[in-house]
């Protein structure tokens, strides 16, 4: 009887599994048909679905998870003595290549859809997919098979070996080698870390919200700023946010007010956040040590160009030391300005922005008005200039795809071809105009990775540029602030980087590259926003677009960027060193560390009383722990390449083509330091990071 029941149960399960398989196959068939229809509409090579409904997103997630599980189960079943490229690497490589655009089709809608229902479905899809792939990375049975292939070696091409090593390392960093009891401890630590990170941010946002100051205490502030402040009992309410704090530190003539506001802003988080951070650092260290690393900073930097915390600290200290002469000259200038205006009072951190602003006003070659500059940057002129510069520099051809399927009427789609070979490299969507319900910041989202598949076909790269540019109103041109021009130019570089990548494997494509490298191309290209030749291509007076920005304006914009470069970077280095040092130790006294570090980096400028940057620097808690240095690292690389290859001729097509083919094309398939060294013909140097800035003041 028991045997009969067991057989019946097996039949029922088998039948259910068959029904699920049939359903999934039908869904897969429907998806493939939609992709084919997309190709017929003029998008060959695209597997991105841009108009999924909430229910379609949910069903597609089911399909993605089922297909993923099927592939992982199949690989896990391979006998260790029979592992080879075809039955281990090829299935995973194809899975990643095929599923990435489908995953992105589900999750990018939370950033762009006009439908609340679709945005919610997209957000839920992201959570489900993250949870599923996290489980996949922890599968011991799959790890054993992949590791067996890596150990077997022999006859595997370098990029394939790098891919296998990447799979192995990814799973090991998720604890696959740990004993069950250690995995439980790892999950407990991760949960505690997440909870404390959230508490740090919540505490940062829950402290005192404002100060009340009289108009006399706000002397020097623009009338428009004062007028917009809430009036409470004959005093003005100053919010402790960047929106109010930065203008006061830049414009307020009353030194005691600047000090009061800077101190209140620097005290956010307070002792409670120092306690939370101390506990966070201890838990992160335990987490890293469970996985075999000496500390969390070494865990975080292992897969980056730096490779170790010691290398990062050495780099930051070297940059800081090389900046000292420049920064001391800048600081002496500011001290002289304070002495003339306020008398012989000590110079403090609260004085930096105010006297930098005064120095700018004295040094700029004309009465610099950002409001006037803005009139030279209508959105459409800026966009047209960006497209032309990138096409000319990198040998590309952009063509707008008309009647393309998009998620909003203002979205544009472009194809990208190589000018010389006419090869299709990819597509990019531009969703740059402001609307309700859309993601509020400017960023690039990779929708499909350029890579090869096992059947010999190639997937092209597809990217989405999101922004919140103003719309035209009452026939008046929509204008961009100069900072918005820079941001748009910077982010479009990520688009070009992604599309020009030609990796074999999806996980090495474009923006999937080394975290210390991925910002470098964009920081390099930002230089084009400060040179007269290219800046005039990006501009046109809104009432007469034939009149581009003047040479004097271009000169002043560049001078403003470079002024006080040493002091600005020193402040960043202070925070980066703080981040790196606390995460390279098991336990450390935050207060004593900052007391020691601050005067060394900031050349004797005292820390504001009762403040500690460790209490109010959110990046220490969430998202950037141990990798805050990465921006400066990328900037050093960018300045080296700009000075070596582009400084003499911004629009040198040959130089641009060499950069595209030697630096952007490989993606993450090769070691990043090796790629840059081969391109430069030497190892990268920090020297160019300082040379162009020495005469800026």
From TrEMBL:
Signal peptide: none
UniProt record, GO biological process: peptide metabolic process; proteolysis
Lineage: superkingdom: Eukaryota
The organism of origin for this protein: Rhynchospora pubera
InterPro entries per record: MetalloPept_cat_dom_sf, Neurolysin/TOP_dom2, Neurolysin/TOP_N, Pept_M3A_M3B, Pept_M3A_M3B_dom
Family assignment from sequence similarity: Belongs to the peptidase M3 family.
Record's cofactor remark: Binds 1 zinc ion.
Location in or out of the cell: Cytoplasm
Molecular function, one GO term: metalloendopeptidase activity
Any one annotated GO CC term: cytoplasm
Cofactor(s) it depends on: Zn(2+)
One family name in Pfam for this protein: Peptidase_M3
Principal location class: cytoplasm
Domain Peptidase M3A/M3B catalytic: start-end pairs: 249-692
Protein's UniProt name: Thimet oligopeptidase
Alphabetically ordered keywords of this record: Cytoplasm, Hydrolase, Metal-binding, Metalloprotease, Protease, Zinc
């Amino acid at each position: 009887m028991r045997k009969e029941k067991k057989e019946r149960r097996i039949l029922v399960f088998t039948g259910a599994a068959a029904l699920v398989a049939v359903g999934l196959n039908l869904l897969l068939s429907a998806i493939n048909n939609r992709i084919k229809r997309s190709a017929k509409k003029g998008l060959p090579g695209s597997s991105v679905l841009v108009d999924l409904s909430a229910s379609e997103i949910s069903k597609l997630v089911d399909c993605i998870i089922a297909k993923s599980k099927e592939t992982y189960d199949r690989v896990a079943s391979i006998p260790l003595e029979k592992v080879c490229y075809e039955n281990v690497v090829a299935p995973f490589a194809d899975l990643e290549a095929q599923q990435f655009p489908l995953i992105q089709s589900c999750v990018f809608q939370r950033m762009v859809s006009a439908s609340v229902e679709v945005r919610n479905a997209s957000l839920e899809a992201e959570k489900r997919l993250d949870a599923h792939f996290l489980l996949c990375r922890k599968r011991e049975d799959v790890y054993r098979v992949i590791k067996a292939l890596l150990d077997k070696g022999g006859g595997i091409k370098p990029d394939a070996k790098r891919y296998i090593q990447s799979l192995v390392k990814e799973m090991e960093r998720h604890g696959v080698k740990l004993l069950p009891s250690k995995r439980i401890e790892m999950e407990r630590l991760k949960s505690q870390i997440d909870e404390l990170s959230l508490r740090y941010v919540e505490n940062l946002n829950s402290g005192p919200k404002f100060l009340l100051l009289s108009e006399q205490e706000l002397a020097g502030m623009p009338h428009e700023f004062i007028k917009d402040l809430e009036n409470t009992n004959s005093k003005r309410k100053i919010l402790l946010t960047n929106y109010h704090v930065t203008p006061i530190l830049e414009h307020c003539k009353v030194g005691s007010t600047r000090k009061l506001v800077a101190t209140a802003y620097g005290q956010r988080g307070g002792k409670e956040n120092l306690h939370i951070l101390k506990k966070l650092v201890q838990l992160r260290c335990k987490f890293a040590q469970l996985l075999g690393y000496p500390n969390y900073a070494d865990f975080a930097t292992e897969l980056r160009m730096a490779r170790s915390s010691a290398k990062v600290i050495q780099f930051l200290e070297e940059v800081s030391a090389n900046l000292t002469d420049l920064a001391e000259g800048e600081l002496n200038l500011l001290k002289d300005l304070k002495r003339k205006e306020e008398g012989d009072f000590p110079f403090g951190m609260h004085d930096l922005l105010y006297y930098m602003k005064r120095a700018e006003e004295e040094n700029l070659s004309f009465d610099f008005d950002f409001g006037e500059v803005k009139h030279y940057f209508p959105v459409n002129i800026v966009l047209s200039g960006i497209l032309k510069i990138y096409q000319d520099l990198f040998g590309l051809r952009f063509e707008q795809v008309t009647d393309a399927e998009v998620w909003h009427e203002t979205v544009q789609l472009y194809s990208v071809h190589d000018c010389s070979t006419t090869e299709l490299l990819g597509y990019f969507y531009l969703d740059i105009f402001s609307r309700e319900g859309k993601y509020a910041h400017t960023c690039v989202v990779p929708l499909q990775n350029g890579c090869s598949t096992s059947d010999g076909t190639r997937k092209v790269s597809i990217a989405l540029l999101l922004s919140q540019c103003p719309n035209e109103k009452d026939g008046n041109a929509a204008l961009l602030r100069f900072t918005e021009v820079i941001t748009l130019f910077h982010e479009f570089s990520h688009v070009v980087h992604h599309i020009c990548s030609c990796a074999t494997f999806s996980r090495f494509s474009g923006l999937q590259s080394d975290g210390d490298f991925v910002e470098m191309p964009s920081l390099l290209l930002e230089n084009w926003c400060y040179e007269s030749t290219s800046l005039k291509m990006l501009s046109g007076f809104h009432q007469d677009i034939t009149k581009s920005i003047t040479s004097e304006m271009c000169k002043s914009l560049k001078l403003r960027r470079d002024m006080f470069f040493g002091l600005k970077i020193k402040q960043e280095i202070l925070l980066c060193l703080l981040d790196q040092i606390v995460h390279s130790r098991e336990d450390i006294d935050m207060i004593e560390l900052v007391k020691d570090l601050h005067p060394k980096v900031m050349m004797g400028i005292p820390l504001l009383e009762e403040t500690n940057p460790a209490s109010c620097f959110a990046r220490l808690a969430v998202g950037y722990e141990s990798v805050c240095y990465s921006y400066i690292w990328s900037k050093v690389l960018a300045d080296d390449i700009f000075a070596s290859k582009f400084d003499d001729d911004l629009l040198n097509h040959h130089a641009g083509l060499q950069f595209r083919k030697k630096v952007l094309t490989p993606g993450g398939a090769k070691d990043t330091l090796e790629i840059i060294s081969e391109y430069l013909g030497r190892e990268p140097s920090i020297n160019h990071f300082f040379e162009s800035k020495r005469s800026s003041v």
